[in-house]
Amino acid sequence: MTHDASPALQTTSAPITPSAALAVGFGGAIVSWVLAWILHLPAIDAPASVALPIIIAGLVIASAALLRACPGPQRLRVGLFGGLIAGLVNLLIVASVAVKQPESTDSLTEFANQFNDRAWLIVPSAVIACVIAGALGALLARGGKGQATTAQAWLARFAMVTVLIYLPLIAVGGAVTSAEAGMAVPDSVTTYGAISVLFPFELMAEPRIFLEHSHRLFGTLAGLTTIVLMLRVLMTDTPKTAKILAIVLFVSVCFQGYMGAVRVSEISLPVAIAHGIFGQVVFTIAGVLAAMLSVAWRGLLPDADRQAAAKRAVKIAVIAAPLMLIQLVLGAAARHLSRMDPPSSGTGHARLTHTAFAFIVVVLVVVLGALLMRIAKAGTGMAVLKKLGASIHGVVTFQFLLGWAALGLVSTAKDHRTIPLSDELAQAAPIRVGETLVTTAHQAIGAILLLLVVVGGVWIAKLASGRTRR
Q1: Cβ-based burial of 328 (10 A; exposed 0-12, middle 13-18, buried ≥19)
Q2: Per mean pLDDT, which range of 85-89, 173-177, 305-309, 383-387 is the poorest?
Q3: Residue 106, exposed/middle/buried by CB under 10 A (0-12, 13-18, 19+)?
Q4: In this structure, how many other beta carbons lie within 10 angstroms of the beta carbon of residue 10?
Q5: How far is CA 157 from the centre of its chain?
Q6: Residue 353, burial from CB neighbour count under 10 angstroms (0-12, 13-18, 19+)
Q7: Three-state SS across the chain?
Q8: How far apart are CA 170 and CA 385, in angstroms?
Q9: For residues 110, 113, 114 and 120, what is the CA-based torsion angle, rounded to 10 degrees?
Q10: Mean pLDDT across the stretch 278-304?
Q11: Cβ atoms < 10 Å from Cβ of 56
């Protein structure tokens, strides 16, 4: 027998504005940040006359896309508040152009954390521009499928936005490792003596400083978003399990930030490896929380057919997830050990084991994806499992191909690279761009695959247990 999600969970008297504005605001902010990061890569370094219109246009489009699910009468209000939130969040990167711009990091001590004469204009203008962008997004939005008319639905969307905010953090962190940029900034909390968000924009021209510093900024954004999400979950009508997981996510983000600081202050390779591994675990925790907050999760009704199918599939998920974690540890070890001076004898072993182990993981993951899609056919209301299964198949295929490309590039590299310290950047070898792009993509796609597998496993574990309510 089959059932659709309970309509009782689709209505509530709670206002949607706070959760909707947070989803729109932080969603618009992450689009702005990613565009700003791409446009200001040292190899691109787009002028303000080009970068600003693109970033604002991106914010308008993102706001319009998110506001499609908002009821028409509330769109403008949500768009305005969302734009305001995006503007305030964007100040974390705008501040870098509102401070004095010394010529080099050597002279930063004299000018650190001091605003320039245009700061009084730059800061409010940035916020106002984002508010206007949010309003334009509301005016351009048109109703789409999946209208979110409850605070619960918008909280679930905010949780998904939070997951997306972790993704560029992981990707840029991977680029830091691939480009040997982990020690480009000598201090662990500040950046060359400046508060991170106040590090002068003009000093980011050095590629390795840009990567390491922007990784820290994305970490600041992830931390802020996590705090807001946790508070929102604790303040609203959500299951106890979701509240506990929101706290766990916050503690995990704090611990991840601590490891990042220790990695720099103690120049510790083991901490660097643990930092890279745990970042993907945090990403996965955020994905599980988003699943638990979803309307589909909370509205699921019992179904004997699905429960029986899920009990058979959950065994595969229980095996696949830990093996993927082992694969992640092997990959992180291979990446970091290869940067030691002299090269570690464990590099080749970790790389070979990681390659061989990939075949086992791929088979298990493909089977899990097929089982998810099969369970989805057991009744209505399970489109999420079909999407998860199809996504797992697509992502694991791409990841497998990227793995071979990455292996070919690192195996044929002619020179051994170590991680230069901040005072060695001028003499450091140029970044191998092709290798950095491929290995970073391999690492980031691996994080997405781990999230999909664990979230899929959590879904079928819920179905197998028979406890489908809340």
Answers
A1: buried
A2: 305-309
A3: exposed
A4: 16
A5: 15
A6: middle
A7: CCCCCCHHHHCCCCCCHHHHHHHHHHHHHHHHHHHHHHHCCCCCCCCHHHHHHHHHHHHHHHHHHHHCCCCHHHHHHHHHHHHHHHHHHHHHHHHHHCECCCCCHHHHHHHCCCECCCHHHHHHHHHHHHHHHHHHHHHHCCCCCCCCCCHHHHHHHHHHHHHHHHHHHHHHHHHHHHCCCCCCCCCCCCECCECHHHCCHHHHHCHHHHHHHHHHHHHHHHHHHHHHHHHHHHHCCCCHHHHHHHHHHHHHHHHHHHHHHHHHHCCCHHHHHHHHHHHHHHHHHHHHHHHHHCHHHHCCCCCHHHHHHHHHHHHHHHHHHHHHHHHHHHHHHHHHHCCCCCCCCHHHHHHHHHHHHHHHHHHHHHHHHHHHHHHHCCCCCCHHHHHHHHHHHHHHHHHHHHHHHHHHHHHCCCCCCCCCCHHHHHHCCCCCHHHHHHHHHHHHHHHHHHHHHHHHHHHHHHHHHCCCCC
A8: 25
A9: 160
A10: 89
A11: 17
Q: Structure tokens of 468?
A: 């489908």
- CA dihedral (19, 21, 24, 25) in degrees, to 10, reads -120
Tokens of 467: 């406890």
The dihedral of CA 421, 422, 426, 429: what is its sign?
Answer: positive
Angle made by CA atoms 454, 385, 2, in degrees to the nearest 5: 130
CB 102 within 8 A of CB 130: no
Tokens of 194: 């400046």
> What pLDDT does residue 11 have?
39
- In 3D space, the residue among 275, 277, 230, 283 whose CA is nearest the CA of residue 257 turns out to be 275
What the block records as the tokens of 280 is 């993907």
Question: Could you tell me how far CA 57 lies from the centroid of its own chain?
Answer: 22
Round the CA-based radius of gyration of the chain to a whole number and report it.
23
Residue-range domain boundaries for the chain: 300-412+431-470
**Going by C-beta distance under 8 Å and a sequence separation of 6 or more, which residues neighbour residue 6?**
299, 301
- Residues composing the chain: 470
% of the chain with per-residue pLDDT over 70? 93
99 phi and psi angles, rounded to 5 deg? -105, 170
Q: For residue range 93-125, what is the model confidence (pLDDT) as tens digits?
A: 999 999 999 988 888 888 889 999 999 999 999
